[in-house]
Target: L-asparaginase
Amino acid sequence: MQKRIHILAMGGTIAGSANDSSATTGYQAGAVGIVELMAAVPQVKEIAEVTGEQLAAIDSKDITAAEQLQLVSRVRELLLKGDVDGVVITHGTDTMEESAYLLDLVHFADKPVVITGAMRPATALSADGPLNILDAVRVAAADSARDRGVLVVLNNEIHSARLVTKMSTTAVETFQSPVGGAIGAINDGVVVFYHGAELHHLPNALSVSEKLTSQKELPYVPVLYGHSDDDGRLVKLVADEGAKGIVYAGMGNGSIPARVEAELGAAVEQGIVVIRASSSISGMVTKAEASYEEAGFIASGLLNPRKARLLLQVALVCGKSAADLRKFLA
Model:
């Protein structure tokens, strides 16, 4: 019996349309609907019983928290259904890693959830979208993909939502996992995983996902990017604007300039949660200066700033403490 895979379309480059088939920029993202996307890959019928729906038709750079929460809610509904064995999501690449990680945080089932996209629009010569969709369905239908959390599949590679990031502005091999590498691949149609599953969803993910379905927005948590001569004025600005948390993307191992450190310390005293992340592409943010620990800053571990932001937002919604966050990120 074939597996039953449901595809959710969110728009993005994979559904992009341009007037010239040689164009890979200047296209309209999300212009091609789910019916056309599925029709371009008739081979999926040989792999699974595939259904689809259009959840959004946006350029992912414009995605809002409300739209991400709608995606969380719909995926939750599908995972709870007995007649769905796996979910595939087509999504724009600019914020794919963020939506993937948000879904991974609240992934409560052993059913695969696979996110894919494309770097070339659907109308382009050598468009990469159709094969990515086919590979995503292959992974979602594979027994070996069960109980692995949310997976990101592009360019014949399988990555974990927690570690993957977009490395290149335009290359089709843009999605990489600098720490750990890809966890698997699709080799001539065969799904292969290199090692066992390592899950990183939040405790009580089912109830956390239910909590998120009642939300229309997420708490204001900006990411501030560290640089030379940073005087910390932006920390004070966002604190005054009502930030509930701050992710500071520092240098190296989450290093923070002294003036910024003072402002972040004042923010913690006001009840604002501060996560210390890094603007570096690779590596783990660990304990560093004793003053950071004394101030109550939380190291982001392996999470990049954008994912640390989402974790903090979800934690704030669910009433998680700073101690809970430290334990989760350790």
Summary: The chain has a mean pLDDT of 96. The longest strand covers residues 48-58. Residues 136 and 302 are 25 Å apart (CA to CA). The longest helix spans residues 65-80.
